[in-house]
Specification:
By secondary structure, this protein is an alpha+beta fold. It folds into two domains: 79 residues, Pseudouridine synthase (2-Layer Sandwich); 132 residues, Pseudouridine synthase, CATH 3.30.2350.10. The protein contains six helices and 13 strands. The strands form three sheets. Strands 1, 2, 3, 4, 7, 10, 11, 12 and 13 form a nine-stranded mixed beta sheet that branches. The chain has a two-stranded antiparallel ribbon with strand order 5-6. A hairpin with a 2-residue loop joins strand 12 and strand 13. The longest helix is centred in the N-terminal third of the chain and has 16 residues. The chain is globular and about 60 Å long. It starts with 7 loop residues before the first strand and ends with a helix.
């Protein structure tokens, strides 16, 4: 890290820790460096199971978070077919859905149907606020509520690898797109069911995870909850 308190920090987030855990770690490191508390914020979260590019802003740069929130993003995702998850990811309750093994050409035709502007319903286990409270908190309490659908744009989506039941895709999407929801919707169209097994964010706008810093987290930090 450089000597300025006001900067953009690109972090390659590991799996098993929330974005808020990363913020806490960077805040602690900066306090050790400067001898006083430095304001730290993020410009868009990643789920705890996900890895990849996370933009952190410190000091006066935290005022610029809005400039990054609306940028397009590129993800690499591994989707597990034939199963569904209560949360859309490996942290939920997993159950078998369909033993159907779709052909690659059928999968590619289904993926093409998602390119363009689509309507998407975000996961119930997400940080979206419903009447002032985070959706994931309501879901954990077993509360009944409806997630509002939103319009998002899928610029491109392609198959990187397919070895049933795992389908690896690369997708370039607009801000606000939930890859967990995209994985579930793909599973629905394929008739197999699906959830997002692994997720890695490669780019936010022109910023690339290749330029991000890797941070080592202690075991205790990995146990904190989003």
């Amino acid at each position: 890290m450089n000597d300025s308190e006001d900067r953009i920090i690109l972090v390659d987030k590991p799996a098993g820790i929330s974005s808020f855990g990363v913020v806490a770690k960077i805040r602690w490191l900066l306090k050790q460096k400067f001898g006083h508390k430095v304001k730290v914020g993020h410009a868009g979260t990643l789920d705890p199971f996900a890895t990849g590019l996370l933009i952190l802003l410190t000091g006066k740069m935290t005022k610029k978070s809005g400039e990054f929130l609306k940028l397009d993003k590129v993800y690499e995702a591994t989707i597990k077919l034939g199963y569904v998850s209560s949360t859309g990811d490996p942290e939920g309750e997993i159950r078998s859905y369909s033993p159907n093994h779709p052909r690659l050409d059928f999968i590619e035709s289904v993926l093409r149907d998602f390119v363009g502007e689509i309507e998407q319903t975000p996961p119930r286990f997400s940080a979206i606020k419903i009447n002032g409270e985070r959706a994931y908190k309501l879901a954990r309490k077993g509360k009944e509520f409806e997630m509002p659908a939103r319009r998002v744009k899928i610029y491109d989506i392609s198959v990187l690898d397919y070895n049933y039941p795992e389908l690896k895709i690369l997708c370039h999407v607009s801000s606000g797109t939930y890859i967990r929801s995209l994985a579930e919707d793909i599973g629905t169209k394929l008739g197999t069911g699906a959830y997002c097994l692994e997720l890695r964010r490669l780019k936010i706008g022109d910023l690339d995870v290749k330029d991000a810093e890797k941070i080592v987290f202690k075991k205790s930090l990995k146990q904190e909850k989003n």
